[in-house]
């Protein structure tokens, strides 16, 4: 073998991330596709962090948001004690994740005792500092959002901008947070730190919005809602559900062995509907507490199902996502969700279209290629082709490798910019290249019309490039990739370990079918 058994890749280093979070999901109904999507992409990012060796200890945090009047009412209409109701719903999220191959390291519940104590301690500090004071609030209140809206934000002067349903006019005693005190600091922060919010256009419009007008004091407690964390100094009030929910990130990080400083290495994955809470309220609370702000907010778009918005009034759209993974497999669902649309755009799930994509890419292009190559290696070459047997790579092999390497670089760069859609597309172009090479070289003609050396070289090149490809695909389709890598004798990825493609012996312990048509 000549010196051409290793090929350098040009890769940029990604920043260190210790924690990736999903929002804690509101426990007033069963999980749906929107929850599944957030969980899946957060899980993919986390797996990628570990794989890229940037931070092998990266942890995934998720949980359930279990307080608020809306939940107490939902429990009542289900004739259940509220605690039992949230126990059931929290459980339905916890049993869903394994069905989607999501592996959280921490699952936080806002009804956890330790979390309640954390929130009360934070409240006391904010109140003692004068950031929170007792006052009155009157205005337009959305029961579904559990928040007041200024008149200018209402749709047609009467409806919630999120729920598009009518708000009620309400006046009550409430604690208020002096949000305006942090407006300048927020503007400065967002102006001097690019890419805190992805995609960047959200950050730009937020800066404009913050500059345009003072911020109203934020109502941060509810009177007459007993299902919540009690305000330490006033038993008539419970803490605003969003303070409760947002600080669950810190409670979970503490449960994982981190502390408030770990937030600077934390990325929050959120849907665009909760951007305001995460880009204004959350950092304002943190600034008030003198805690450094999170590394990044990653904002994703929404899904419709068969063209229909996900809505409780349309049961076809609120089916448990495990039904999709039953039909498409967890890997198939994860792949199709990543492949189908850029993260920040909205997308539409049509099961037949998803199945077509999965069958074309994972079955025909990947699994079948691997199976055919491994069959040749096991049948003709006793399951192993030694690199030392190849005297020199021929022109075609070198050309194939040299075509694939820049695409592998692009895939990794796409992951580092969280562009899963592009990563999946580029993974397919590697598969097209490998399939083209394999078919043109026709190694199955060995011992018929083709010399052994050429067939061995073809199988070795395909095996090595497929190994790296399967590794880069593994955050998206972990089970499929694990099975293929295992069949190869569990070789590590040279591009993640050394930023170099190193050709190794090609091993095939067997030649299983790794994918069934969905
Ligand atoms: Zn609303």
TrEMBL record:
Residues 401-487 form the Methionyl-tRNA synthetase anticodon-binding domain. Signal peptide: none annotated. It holds the Pfam family Anticodon_3. Residues 157-373 form the Methionyl/Leucyl tRNA synthetase domain. Gene3D superfamilies: 2.170.220.10, HUPs, Isoleucyl-tRNA Synthetase, Domain 1. It comes from the Bacteria. One of its GO terms (molecular function) is ATP binding. Keywords: Aminoacyl-tRNA synthetase, ATP-binding, Ligase, Nucleotide-binding, Protein biosynthesis. Its EC number is 6.1.1.10. GO terms for biological process: methionyl-tRNA aminoacylation. Is required not only for elongation of protein synthesis but also for the initiation of all mRNA translation through initiator tRNA(fMet) aminoacylation. PANTHER family: METHIONINE--TRNA LIGASE, MITOCHONDRIAL, METHIONYL-TRNA SYNTHETASE. Belongs to the class-I aminoacyl-tRNA synthetase family. This is Methionine--tRNA ligase. It comes from Vibrio tetraodonis subsp. pristinus.
């Amino acid at each position: 073998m000549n010196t051409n058994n290793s090929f350098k890749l040009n890769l940029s280093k990604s920043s260190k991330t210790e924690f990736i979070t999903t929002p804690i999901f509101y426990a007033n109904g069963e999980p749906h596709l929107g929850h599944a999507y957030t969980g899946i992409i957060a899980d993919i990012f986390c797996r990628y962090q570990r794989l890229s060796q940037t931070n092998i200890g990266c942890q995934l945090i998720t949980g359930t948001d279990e307080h608020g009047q809306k939940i107490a009412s939902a429990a009542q209409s289900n004739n259940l004690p509220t605690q039992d109701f949230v126990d059931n719903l929290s459980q339905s999220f916890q049993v869903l994740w394994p069905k989607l191959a999501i592996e959280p390291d921490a699952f936080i519940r806002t009804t956890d005792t330790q979390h309640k104590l954390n929130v009360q301690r934070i409240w006391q500090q904010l109140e003692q500092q004068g950031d929170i004071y007792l006052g009155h609030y009157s205005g337009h209140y959305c029961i579904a959002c559990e928040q007041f809206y200024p008149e200018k934000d209402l749709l047609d002067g009467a409806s919630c901008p999120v729920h598009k349903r009518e708000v009620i006019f309400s006046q009550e005693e409430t604690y208020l947070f002096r949000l305006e005190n942090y407006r300048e600091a927020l503007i400065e922060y967002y102006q001097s730190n690019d890419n805190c919010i992805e995609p960047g256009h959200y950050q730009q419009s937020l800066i404009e919005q913050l500059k345009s007008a003072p911020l109203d004091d934020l109502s941060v407690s509810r009177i007459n809602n007993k299902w919540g964390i009690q305000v330490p100094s006033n038993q008539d009030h419970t803490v605003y559900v969003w303070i409760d929910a947002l600080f669950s990130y810190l409670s979970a990080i503490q449960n994982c062995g981190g502390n408030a400083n770990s937030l600077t290495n934390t990325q929050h994955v959120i849907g665009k509907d909760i951007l305001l809470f995460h880009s204004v309220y959350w950092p304002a609370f943190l600034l008030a507490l003198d805690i450094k702000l999170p590394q990044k907010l990653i904002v994703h778009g929404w899904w419709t199902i068969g063209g229909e918005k996900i809505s409780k009034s349309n049961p076809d759209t609120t089916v448990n996502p495990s039904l999709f993974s039953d039909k498409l497999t967890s890997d198939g669902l994860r792949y199709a969700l990543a492949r189908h649309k850029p993260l920040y755009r909205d997308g539409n799930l049509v099961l037949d279209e998803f199945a077509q994509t999965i069958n074309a890419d994972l079955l025909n292009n990947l699994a079948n290629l691997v199976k055919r190559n491994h069959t040749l290696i096991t049948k003709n070459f006793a399951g192993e082709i030694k690199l030392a047997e190849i005297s020199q790579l021929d022109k075609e092999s070198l050309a194939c490798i040299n075509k694939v390497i820049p695409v592998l670089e692009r895939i990794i760069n796409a992951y580092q910019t969280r562009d899963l859609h592009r990563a999946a597309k580029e993974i397919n172009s590697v598969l097209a290249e490998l399939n083209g090479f394999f078919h043109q070289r026709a190694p199955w003609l060995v011992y018929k019309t083709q010399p052994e050396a050429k067939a061995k070289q073809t199988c070795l090149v395909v095996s090595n490039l497929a190994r790296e490809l399967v590794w880069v695909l593994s955050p998206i389709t972990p089970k499929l990739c694990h099975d293929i890598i295992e069949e190869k004798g569990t070789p590590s990825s040279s591009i993640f370990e050394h930023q170099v493609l190193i050709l190794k012996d090609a091993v095939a312990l067997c030649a299983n079918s790794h994918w069934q048509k969905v």
